[in-house]
Amino acid sequence: MRKSWLVTAVATALAVAAFAASSGVQRSITVGEFAVKISKAMGNTSADQKAAVSTLKKLGVSVGTDLSASLTEGQAARILGDLGLTVTAAHPDSALTAGKAEQLAGMARSVSLATVAPQDVALPTSCLELRNRGQCDTCCTNYLVSIHINPNTTPICAKFCAVIVPPGHQSPSEPQP
Q: Domain map of the chain by residue range?
């Protein structure tokens, strides 16, 4: 009986040790999952991988086409480099773990969509035809959201709609009486 108790104790200890060792292993992250993490860190609220990739592409970031592929440290460094961040991969061919991805996404928080949003975003001129700045701003904001740019991180709509003259004021381009 004492021998079977010893065997059970050793087997239990080995099982606990094996479980503890395996729980320290982190799973790798996919290209699409990383795109969502980076996009969210920059202020985008979408959890959709395709939308996140679309947002990053508009900012000049090359993500790749296979969103389900395992992401390497080298690919992650290149993606962040496209955003203007300097990142060096210690093991460029190694799969990026979820923990490292979170750390890198934290770095991307320092980059907002306002600082990397292209200046050549073609805003809808139909917004300028609305009767006041508030309506123009709402129109512009809705457009930015539709193209996956967080309007809260850039004053582009306020600047765009500033050309609308408030009621009771004259346009500076109109001649004075």
A: 31-112, 117-177
